[in-house]
Amino acid sequence: MSPHPRRTSPGPESRPPPRDSRPPSARLQKDIALIDLLDRLLDGGVVLAGDITLAVADVDLVYVGLRALVSSVAAAERQGVPLPR
Amino acid sequence: MIYVYAITDAMEVHDGPSGLDGGDVQAIEHEGIAGVFSTHDELEVSSDPELLWAHERVVDHLMDHGAVLPLRFGSVLRDPEALRVILDEDGARFRLLLSRVRGCVELAVRVGLTSSEPGTLAGGRDYMRERLAARQREEDAADRVLAPLRPLARATAHRPVQAGNTTVSESYLVPRGAVEPFAAEVRALQAQNPGLSISCTGPWGPYSFVDGGGR
């Protein structure tokens, strides 16, 4: 797949579009952006002294699901087969 | 309680996006730095992508106005006064970190690994040894692929590969003006390595470059 910026121009509207009929490559880009988002927000960032950081539910499941997707898409691309949808 | 998004030296937060659960984003200033938060009676924090993007949108908006230290997702304090106390006590650390990330954004690059599965099981031990060796070769290859990107960044953070992970991931702290040349280099690397799947996302807040020594 091609490298792509999460957004191309500055602006507050960086929200990904809602689920729709975009081509699989666009969905894949959205899913990779979500993995990168999870990596950063849940594992990076400043941790405050005295913070009572809330436990975030369901994260492991989301990770597993997305990584499985990325893995299968990468495999599909290597074999030159159309992406399953 | 308050949900905290970031510490910043930007004193301009109005006209930005709303926060988690549509909350109004406010700031409390203390000696030239500000904590940015929204107030909630009740807030359920889950990995719902909409909540994660809401956090990042607030950070993203702040970055248009100054240097920003994004907080980890899910950071909650009792009230604005608790945040002011932290700004007071940790102010020196925050100023140092702000000076490091000023003018920069974070870019994320991921290289897909070819997950090699040995076909035969000669023995558990050989199998594991071969698997680990193969894994190491893949990581070394990804490492070499990414090498040309590092000089374009002010700092690089390597994310350790975890079990079940099929990609090598690195974060780069890149001056705003160098984002396009960086993206062009990523495209060139992809063209030179058609067998690998390389992705680049961003610009993000500098989440991977605010680890300033302990809490």
Helix and strand composition category of chain A: mainly alpha
Helix content of chain A: 40-55%
Shape of chain A: elongated
CATH class bucket of the largest domain in chain B = Alpha Beta
Largest sheet of chain B: 5 strands, antiparallel
Low-pLDDT windows of residues of chain A: 1-20, 81-85
Counted beta strands of chain B: 9
Please give a structural write-up.
The complex is a heterodimer of chains A (85) and B (215). By secondary structure, chain A is an all-alpha fold. Helix content of chain A is 48%, strand content 0%. Chain B has 2 domains: 2-101; 104-209, Alpha-Beta Plaits, CATH 3.30.70. Chain B is built from 5 helices and 9 strands, in the order βββαββααβαββαβ. Chain B has helices at residues 49-63, 80-89, 91-101, 124-146, 179-192; strands spanning 2-8, 26-30, 33-39, 68-70, 76-77, 104-112, 155-159, 167-175, 198-204. In chain B, the strands form 2 sheets. In chain B, strands 1, 2, 3, 4 and 5 form a 5-stranded antiparallel β-sheet that branches. The longest helix of chain B has 23 residues, at 124-146. The two termini of chain B are 20 Å apart. The model of chain B has no long low-confidence stretch (mean pLDDT 88). At the A-B interface, helix 1 and helix 2 of A face helix 1, strand 5, helix 2, strand 6 and strand 8 of B.
Summarize the structure.
The complex is a heterodimer of chains A (85) and B (215). Chain A is 48% helix and 0% strand.
Salient structural properties:
heterodimer, A: 85 residues, mainly alpha, 0% strand, disordered N terminus, disordered C terminus, B: Alpha-Beta Plaits, 2 domains, 4-stranded antiparallel beta sheet
Write the layout of secondary structure elements.
The complex is a heterodimer of chains A (85) and B (215).
Chain A: H1 24-43, H2 59-79
Helix pairs in contact in A: 1-2
Chain B: E1 2-8, E2 26-30, E3 33-39, H1 49-63, E4 68-70, E5 76-77, H2 80-89, H3 91-101, E6 104-112, H4 124-146, E7 155-159, E8 167-175, H5 179-192, E9 198-204
Antiparallel strand pairs in B: 1-3, 1-4, 1-5, 2-3, 6-8, 6-9, 7-8
